[in-house]
Amino acid sequence: xxxxxxxxxxxxxxxxxxxxxxxxxxxxxxxxxxxxxxxxxxxxxxxxxxxxxxxxxxxxxxxxxxxxxxxxxxxxxxxxxxxxxxxxxxxxxxxxxxxxxxxxxxxxxxxxxxxxxxxxxxxxxxxxxxxxxxxxxxxxxxxxxxxxxxxxxxxxxxxxxxxxxxxxxxxxxxxxxxxxxxxxxxxxxxxxxxxxxxxxxxxxxxxxxxxxxxxxxxxxxxxxxxxxxxxxxxxxxxxxxxxxxxxxxxxxxxxxxxxxxxxxxxxxxxxxxxxxxxxxxxxxxxxxxxxxxxxxxxxxxxxxxxxxxxxxxxxxxxxxxxxxxxxxxxxxxxxxxxxxxxxxxxxxxxxxxxxxxxxxxxxxxxxxxxxxxxxxxxxxxxxxxxxxxxxxxxxxxxxxxxxxxxxxxxxxxxxxxxxxxxxxxxxxxxxxxxxxxxxxxxxxxxxxxxxxxxxxxxxxxxxxxxxxxxxxxxxxxxxxxxxxxxxxxxxxxxxxxxxxxxxxxxxxxxxxxxxxxxxxxxxxxxxxxxxxxxxxxxxxxxxxxxxxxxxxxxxxxxxxxxxxxxxxxxxxxxxxxxxxxxxxxxxxxxxxxxxxxxxxxxxxxxxxxxxxxxxxxxxxxxxxxxxxxxxxxxxxxxxxxxxxxxxxxxxxxxxxxxxxxxxxxxxxxxxxxxx
Length: 675
Fold this sequence. Notes:
The chain is built from 40 helices and no strands. By secondary structure, the protein is mostly helical.
């Protein structure tokens, strides 16, 4: 125990000594940099600046280093005659400055060349003395300097300066007057609002606009801080009829957000008014009213309005999402006005529930809004009612219900969908089969495969095959999936078995591959064709040897091309693409076959492969494919021992190719090959 304590103590002492050494080095480097930068100007070497910046960064992370570094920066700021250096130091003090920096920074606030840097630095120092220095300078400066100080004080939240800012509302310098108004608005609060409201009647033009902007800032801040009644006082002043439309609209929205329960009545009065623009806006602003009574107000207004306004009210009700509006929206869905009907159906997506489903599924085939609502509507019993609609005798309703369940991702609908997949109606079957692909899980795969073997109509088989393929994508255990396909194959024949063989490519297991190889020998044409295509399309290179052998032996030209294409694709997945492509080239009789194999050489990286493709540069029918492959292989070999031979072949590529990209690639590689 004593030994462990001794080791720990020694380590701590060593660390302290190291830290002390680092601090000393940092301060020494800083002194040197400040001396070297005494006459520094922008455009000179920045090595000293980087040293100063590094010391500042280190001081920001080391409390013991912060004081000494700050002191050295302050000293340099006082004595340096370089304006650029002093600006740079002000930026450093923005990072590590403390109350110790306040006096020197305050002395620079009146200097036109340094005021910005000093002000920004003071703005970051949290001590009240920094704010006091800025406040004092506000009364001694003018023009742009004063404007900057006003805004900095406001952003600091220095409310003690508000009274002096208010006095500047009447400044002969209009820019200063406007900045002081903005500053008071930023400071916010009831006192700021009172000052701005008091100044407003005596203002005009641009000054009035700035006061209005500041009042809006104050009102928003008051609303956020829970003083809605104070905010409403401001908004009422700005909402009077003599104000510009955009001001009144902004004030009306503010009233909606700040008045609480009273807001609904305020907006209702506007909705009943004669101004269509204000009416439309008031309806929209109802979504901002938190009080639940706003929903009842809108519902009561709905039946008294013209169709145009009814449409807007229904959209507002939908945006509020208050379920108490369900009955009103349901009634409006029977409107003869198409816009009102669409808005009502859309609103039911958020205010409706299980009782709305029958209406929505009936309307969905002709109303896009109803279809959209079926996808988003929530509530107890919603999914159950949509599932019930799948069994409807009305084909359109059944199809819309199936589409909604698929879009909602409702997996508990699978049983109903399997029943629908056996419907006498082909359109219903197709819709159900498509939905099963999305919703079927691992436990449903066997049923889906059974349906593939014995569909209600053989014409459905391709759709079921596709659905099964989609379902496989969501099943993680490929071994289990493959086993289920293999089990289904035992009782299948003809087209059903062919479809199952094709599905094995989605479950590429060892057993699945063995089954496909066996099916290649099947005498049934459809099964044989499916097996060949599946083998050629296998996702990895495991069956490459079998694919090549079959390509050599088959007399079916179509199969030969498919197998050759599959073999070349597999070559790119191996460590020996060149060797495989060379073997494939021996089978390439036609020009198309040769082009296909040459494309496979693109992933090769051997001199042997480059020499092979170079043979085809003289054949005008294969020249471009050979040139592209040569350029790509050559790029990989540019640093090899055979680089001069590579260069020779690529120079030929440059001469014969007409493909601009191939030529550029070859030229670049040639330029990079050194003797």
